[in-house]
Specification:
mainly alpha
Length: about 130
């Protein structure tokens, strides 16, 4: 699942970088609409319920808003030709959930998570060399 998510993010960011500025904010609208449609399509396959407790719904709404803000900032960075900065920061994305779990949930880091964090760090190093 992590590999599929990573490929999805890469395709998403690659596509956004290719969209001309004349498209306005439609790429963000389409991006959010497609992501919601994909998630809703996957619900029956997972057996998950669309009903969330109030707190979980609020957390999901904040996560969605932050994701939208991230997409907007990435789109702005690509339009300002700050792609090198945007790509480096995007490469750090996989580290954020792990670090949040370590900090707030007091979880222990697993070997695959450590490899993922190492991979993100390596990616940043390789991008910086280029």
């Amino acid at each position: 699942m992590a590999l599929v998510a990573g490929v999805g993010l890469a395709v998403h960011f690659f596509a956004l970088a290719r969209i001309p500025a004349s498209a306005g904010w439609w790429p963000v609208v389409v991006s959010r609409a497609v992501s919601v449609a994909v998630i809703l399509a996957l619900f029956p396959a997972t057996g998950a319920s669309l009903r969330l407790p109030r707190r979980a719904a609020a957390v999901a709404a904040v996560a969605g808003a932050l994701g939208t803000l991230a997409t907007i900032l990435y789109l702005l960075a690509t339009r300002q030709e700050l792609l090198s900065v945007a790509v480096v920061l995007s490469a750090l994305y996989p580290a954020v959930p792990v670090l949040l779990a370590l900090t707030f949930l007091r979880e222990r880091i697993t070997r695959p998570q450590a490899v993922g964090l190492l991979g993100a760090g390596l990616a940043i190093g390789l991008i910086a060399l280029n």
